[in-house]
Amino acid sequence: MGINIIAHRGSSKAAPENTKSAFKQAIKDQADGIELDVHLTADNQVIVIHDPTIDRTSKGKGFIKNFKLNELKQYEFGSFFDEKFKNEKILTLTEALEIIKNLSFINIEIKKGYNINQGIEEEVLKSIEKINLKNEIIISSFNHESLKMIKNIRNDIKIAPLLYARLNKPWDYAINLSAEYLHLYYKLVNKEIIEKCHQHGIKVNVFTVDEKYDLNKMINYEVDGIITNYPIRARDLLANKNLK
Ligand code: G3P
Ligand code: CA
């Protein structure tokens, strides 16, 4: 099958994360897929951004949940990375999917906390349904209740609990959640865990792997996918080993 290279927030070391430029760069860098993060605006629009506030990635301040989409569109989300990206506008999930729809793999990470993004699951699914996507879509989250909600609404959408913890028998945890994937922190996996997951029909993508030493290790473990800020680096390493 090969190992999927998944560009984390797009090619986010070459362009500002979660923007059109980062996604286009990931396509140029021959990523198989893209990982992006989503939040809900005050007017219930799904937008692509990592943090719950706009403070770090724009010149504005405030929580996303307090802005309407048209207000967020007034800001730019590129110059924090480099002045040359100063025209970068925030993307709705629908706009992002239009850019990346030809990739074979799309990973939408739902950010959800007790006081943010309630009801985001239905809105994410609506965005997916709007575009006739033929690729593999995986919805991941650290909020596993949110993933259960996704499954309850659309059983055919694949889900991936994100885990920073080393669970006892993580494959059983995935099966119990009806998850097809586990998204595991790369420092907490070993070959045995990957093999056991595979024996139980669970695929494993690891995050966020950037250094050559770690990328090689994950390739040797035969993970299903590597989430990385440097997709071109991962692609070159795979090519050197004559792997896809
Ligand atoms: O999906 C893996 C990774 O993106 C999870 O952490 O904080 O970068 O969204 P974070
Ligand atoms: Ca993420």
Tell me what you see in this structure.
The chain is α/β, with parallel strands linked by helices and 244 residues long. The protein has one domain (4-240): Phosphatidylinositol (PI) phosphodiesterase (TIM Barrel, Alpha-Beta Barrel). It is 32% helix and 20% strand. The protein is built from 9 helices and 10 strands. The protein has helices spanning 20-28, 69-72, 93-100, 120-130, 144-153, 170-176, 191-199, 212-221, 231-240; strands spanning 4-8, 33-40, 46-48, 91-92, 105-110, 136-141, 158-163, 181-185, 203-207, 225-228. An 8-stranded parallel beta barrel has the order 1-2-5-6-7-8-9-10, surrounded by 8 helices. The longest helix is centred in the middle third of the chain and has 11 residues, at 120-130. The chain starts with a strand and ends with a helix. SN-glycerol-3-phosphate is lined by residues 8, 35, 37, 50, 109, 140, 162, 183, 207-208, 227.
CA-based gyration radius: 17 Å
Name the CATH superfamily classification: Phosphatidylinositol (PI) phosphodiesterase
The largest sheet, given as strand count, sense and whether it forms a barrel, is: 8 strands, parallel, barrel
What is the number of beta strands? 10
What level of helicity do the residues show? 25-40%
What do the pLDDT scores average to?
Answer: 96
